[in-house]
Design a protein that fits this description.
This is S-acyl fatty acid synthase thioesterase, medium chain. InterPro entries: AB_hydrolase_fold, TEII, Thioesterase. It is an enzyme of class 3 (hydrolase). It catalyses: (9Z)-octadecenoyl-[ACP] + H2O = (9Z)-octadecenoate + holo-[ACP] + H(+). Its EC number is 3.1.2.14. The structure is a single chain. This protein has one domain: Rossmann fold. The chain has 264 residues and is of the alpha/beta class. α2 crosses α3 and α5 crosses α7. It has a 7-stranded mixed β-sheet, sandwiched between helices. The chain is globular, with a radius of gyration of 17 Å. It contains 9 helices and 7 strands.
Amino acid sequence: LFVCWVFFSGMEKLIVCAHKRPNALCRLICFPWAGGGTCQLAHWSTLVSSSIEVLCVRLPGRETRINEPFAKDMTSMVNEVTSVLLKELQEKPFAFFGHSFGSYLSFAVALHLKEKYGLEPVHLFSSGAHAPNSDAMLSLKRLPVSDAKDEEILEYIQKIGGTPPELLHNKEIRKHVVLTVKEDFRVLQTFSFEKAETGTPLSCDITCFNGSDDIPHDVQAWQELTSGDTSFYKLPGGHFYLLEHSNEIFLTKHITRCIENAGL
């Protein structure tokens, strides 16, 4: 059983760090998918180089924050992550990894850090997501998720995978998973980004990962969001390809190499 440990007195709620590495050259901040918790990505600390410390963001309404109200919008999520992590992000280089909903949240946080504090990740890793400036993203925001029935959300969750079926057999857990996915998706639909307002907002390299059997994602538009290099990789599997051990190994090795080559 993998245990997620927390660290830093002011960060217990928001951040999980399975292995503290105070001498690490860089921190990798991981942002989970809609309805997701922290253990899967926090576990990456056992797979990356010892030069990297892995932190995973825990959002309200789940795990030890299960009794907290869900975030109302993307801005409040971004503000919480930024305010809690700011000191750590100022003291050493950092990179972001986000999957699906987490990809959009990580980009929104990166944008806010650049605009308000002049801080930027050394690398942004996006997984299972459209570019925030793509037409596909606009279509995503128009989906009537708030009006969807629980049965429809449950069917979607079962279709894309990522949630152990045995959890969904429990009525209370199933109800909470459905609610969490619905609330995270509602937050996503409050995210507004217009590239024209900012020009090219980032200068870091961006790498996009996707599952070969997932729905096609509009990823090419990520190139318009940075003056750095943009790379694209497809790995075998569906939307939750990253939970396959062989893909985890590829992802963590590639991410380690990218960070170590960033000239820290």
